[in-house]
Amino acid sequence: EVGDNNNIHSSLPRVIYETGGAQYLSATNMHGNKDKHDNEQEKKEEDVLNEDVKKWLYKQVKLKQYEKVFILNDIDSMDIIKSLKVEDLKTMGILKIGHQIKMLNSIKLLNE
User: Fold this and answer.
1) Which of 39, 41, 79, 89 has the maximal Cβ count within 10 Å?
2) Distance between CA 69 and CA 12 in Å, rounded?
3) Contact assessment for residue 42 and residue 69, using Cβ atoms and an 8 Å cutoff
4) Residue 46 has what pLDDT?
């Protein structure tokens, strides 16, 4: 059906990674291993968190353990931060209610 991406994505093999209490999914190749290209790309992106986003994550909400989650989900600007909703946080693997509340309260203040 047009517009129904759930069926497309549900057929992909996935690996769940955990970091700092967060889980995130990564598509894998047909053998259950990440492609070499994906590994190289992740290495390049590891140190690339926008400074404003990093400052917000580290100093304002004090949840630096989610840095890699934000990088892997391309959360690379404060405009994106300002648009995050609880569903987005859950999709990213930020499942602890207290952490969601901290982030959402901070986002609410950013939008005022």
Assistant:
1) 89
2) 20
3) no
4) 56
Other beta carbons less than 10 A from residue 86's beta carbon: 13
DSSP letters along the chain, please? -TT-HHHHHHTS-EEEEEETTEEEEEE--TTSS--HHHHHHHHHHTT---HHHHHIIIIIS--GGGHHHHHHTT--SHHHHHH--HHHHHHHT---HHHHHHHHHHHHHHT-
What are the pLDDT digits (tens) for 32-89? Answer: 555 555 555 555 545 689 999 999 999 999 999 999 999 999 999 999 999 999 999 9
Closest CA to 63 of 93, 101, 99, 22: 99
How far apart (Å, rounded) are the C-alpha atoms in residues 111 and 79? 10
| pTM for the whole structure | 0.62
Q: What whole-number distance in Å separates Cα of residue 52 and Cα of residue 54? A: 5
